[in-house]
Amino acid sequence: MIDIELPSVPPASGLTRGFAACLASVTEVSVSELPLPDGDLRHALGAWRTWLAEHGSGLVPIADPARFQWAGWWIAVVENPDITGARAAQEEREVAALAFGTPPGIVLSPQSPALLGRATKGLSITAAYAVSSLDPVLHPAQSTQNLLGNVEGLAIAPRAEAPMQLLETAQAYAGRGLHGDRYAAGAGTFSPRAERRPGHDLTLIAAEVLDELAATGHALDFADARRNVLTRGVDVNALVGRTFRIGEVVCQGRRLCEPCVHLDRLSGPGLLRPLIHRGGLRVDILADGEIRLGAPIEVV
């Protein structure tokens, strides 16, 4: 949920109310449920830390927000590009904004909507915070029945930012990727620069997500999504941590392939927000094989 409502509590500053709207979005509660004390942001942060602790979470300051990279939500205090001049009050000069993705971009800014879609790298950020669980225990994935689907599209790009090429068949190589693709060659935008890291061999995205985007006015072709495999019928998010087959190719789901401002820049503005948690799956290839259009996808 992304809540764009600013709470109407006059004693609280505009910055405090903007931060409250961002925090409500992150925690997926109504903004009216947040404590909102009188005064500036500093007082409100103390109240929110107590409230979050009661719900098993904390509010962690980010030491270097200009260089921060994290495929999740975080809240930034940004110098307002709409306000200039030394006479502007401190509370007028700063706004709260919600960032997401790696590299990150702004997905919510109730006080300054002009910031939406902007990369955080080019902003003047004075402070930033991430909401983090106080309990780091990793719980095993629940058993899910009928994780079945099929391949509806295949695509590769020979180099970073090159147009995606649609295929009918593709050769997959364990620990590398698809033949002819930039990630198999170690030449993708996010290819590890040193040793190999999990989750860079293959990317999937669900056709159902693209259908929903088109129905809501955010049409995105499969090629413009810049993923390798278009699926139909299977919940790709549920494949995280699971071993499965795409045709004869054995794969391991690693993590969600979250959207970022890089995709927003290449394929058109306005994609970052609607693709949050729906941008697909990052996959390791465990055994060589061929993938064809129509190939079944099933959990091993």
Instruction: Kindly report how far apart the N and C termini lie.
Output: 33 Å
Mean pLDDT: 88
Q: Biggest sheet: strands side by side, in what order?
A: 6-11-10-14-13-12-16
Summing up helix and strand content along with how strands pair, one would put the structural category as alpha+beta
SS elements, strand count: 16
Q: In angstroms, what is the radius of gyration?
A: 21 Å
Q: Unreliable segments (pLDDT under 50, ≥5 consecutive)?
A: none
Q: How much of the polypeptide forms β-strand, as a percent range?
A: 25-35%
Helix proportion of residues, in percent?
10-25%
Give the count of helical stretches: 6
Order of helices and strands: HHEEHEEEEEEEEHHEEEHEEE
- Give the overall form: elongated
Question: Tell me about the biggest sheet?
Answer: 7 strands, mixed, barrel
